Amino acid sequence: xRQIARHDVVFVAATGGEHELTWSQKAHEREGCRPHLxxxxxxxxxxxxxxxxxxDMAAVLHAFAAVMAHxxxxxxxxxxxADGRPRAVVVASGVLxxxxxxxxxxxTSDELSALTLQLxxxxxxxxxxxxxxxxxxxxxxxxxxxxSLHHFSADTTAARIxxxxxxxxxxxxxxxxxxxxxPRQIARFEGSPxxxxxxxxxxxxxxxxxxxxxxxxxxxPGSRRRALYNFACLDSEAVAxxxxxLAKQYxxxxAAVLHAxxxxxxxxxxxxxxxxxxxxxxNRQTTLARQAVAHVAGRVLVPVDTSLGRExxxxxxxxxxxxxxxxxxxxxxxxxxxxxxxDEVSDELGRSxxxxxxxxxxxxxxxxxxxxxxxRAPQDFERAMASSRYGRFPKTVDTYSGKLCFIVWDxxxxxxxxxxxxxxxxDATDLEQILRSFESQLVGTAIGGDAAxxxxxxxx
Length: 460
Prior knowledge:
Blueprint: E1 2-12, E2 17-19, H1 23-30, E3 44-50, H2 57-70, E4 76-77, E5 88-90, E6 93-102, H3 109-119, E7 131-138, E8 141-150, H4 156-171, H5 183-190, H6 193-210, E9 228-236, H7 237-250, H8 254-270, E10 275-282, H9 287-290, E11 297-304, H10 313-327, H11 335-349, E12 357-361, H12 378-386, E13 389-392, E14 395-396, E15 404-411, E16 415-422, H13 428-447, H14 449-455
Parallel strand pairs: 6-7, 10-12, 12-15
Antiparallel strand pairs: 1-6, 2-5, 3-8, 4-5, 7-8, 9-13, 9-14, 9-16, 10-11, 15-16
């Protein structure tokens, strides 16, 4: 691909001004995620979407202008106050630069991924719009859009909303964008009596969960700036087949099956009888309907009784599913209150109550999930497992040092999964072994019979 043009997209909206940061934004600011010009603190969400019906460039640029005008978070700047803390300033008008890239053959997914990463560099400054965008053309016709959104303005679900709305408008300029909460409305709710009552209820839940949440502590490297962070990645059709089949068989969600299976493998690897994972959850249960482009997810501690074993794995999946549904209502917390609770429970326990074991299973749309039959033949799974791809991507970062992050970032014909942590606690071989066990045991459970007895969740 080669860049052939840069388009200035002028947007004009009816709203602007300054508002309080949302709780989610305040929490990420406390963790060091902030608009940052260079380096590992430049977290971002990256998306690529194919355009249907091959619209012309004018329609695509019109879609960018309409989406920018609609979603305030995309035109929010983050200048700092006298204390160095970011403020949220929404501009009513401005210019978004959209790069145009030409590709002779249609770009591969790896090439699109590389392009979204390129858009994120060298970083986002406090006076930059939080969205960077590109359009890829083939034979002069727009075929893909590629986006990079600063993580301070959009989490994964919000980034998906932006990409989907852009793709829809590009092919159907008359399509509606819908209505939903803007970040200023979220912040207003959080400061209201209703929001404060919600914060009190979440705090009571958090304190109860924190008392049972500590798992083996991960080591934090002495020098975070030079920390080596290991990624182990899995691209597996077998996991998609097994998870979809088991979810259908158990009448539960794919997310619950994946969550339960990973917890069993992790507990077995750590030699513990119960796994309590810090799970990323969409809050208020109406995330997509709300269409807010800002942080729309929080974290909640989800205990999994991994001692149930293989015979009770269906019950375990259903229990996890129920816990995930219940937990979504308490996944958004006021960060200052949570920090106080964490300190107080840590003092009570005599050790840190902070749980560094993270699970983030991105939303899985049923229409994109492979239609797997429960009665798949064992050879189908064996063939799928033979095509699984593993990768290791060590790199120097300090963002996630001291945490173990299990992320299912795609689930369609294959499952895209990554597991990463600082090398001080787990090396790349450990991470790959956990993923291989996760795949083989999940597949063994889906096949059943002798294969399940030798390769699934027995004794986990």
